Amino acid sequence: MIKKIGLFINNIVRSLDNKQDNGYSARKLSAFAGVMVAIYATLKLLPSEYLIEAIYAWLVFALLCLGIVTIEQVIKLKNGNTPTTDGQ
């Protein structure tokens, strides 16, 4: 049991090192932390009228951390620019 806990902590620390392939993914850890903070903050700390905006902000953070959404796509969405396809 102690070896498993030590391995878990070791992998978390290794995930912060860019030179090693060992450890967990820092992007996934950041996204997980963002979602966990979002759950706590939106349910316990914010008034009910701000919940939906807070959820949007935290989920955008998680998507950015995972690389599913880029900053460029967020800016285009905010400005109302929609991608166009050729031939249509």
Describe the structure.
There is one protein chain. The protein is mostly helical and 88 residues long. The protein has a domain at 25-81. 67% of the residues lie in helices and 0% in strands. The protein has four helices and no strands. The chain has helices at residues 2-15, 26-45, 51-66, 71-79. α2 runs antiparallel to α3. It starts with a helix and ends in a 9-residue tail after the last helix.
Could you name the key traits of this structure?
mainly alpha; flat; 88 residues; single chain
Helix content: 55-70%
Tell me the overall shape.
flat
- Mind telling me the C-alpha Rg? 18 Å
Main sheet attributes: strand count, strand direction, barrel closure:
none
Nutshell version of this structure?
The chain is mainly alpha-helical and 88 residues long. It has helices spanning 2-15, 26-45, 51-66, 71-79.
List the helices and strands and how they pair.
Blueprint: H1 2-15, H2 26-45, H3 51-66, H4 71-79
Helix pairs in contact: 2-3
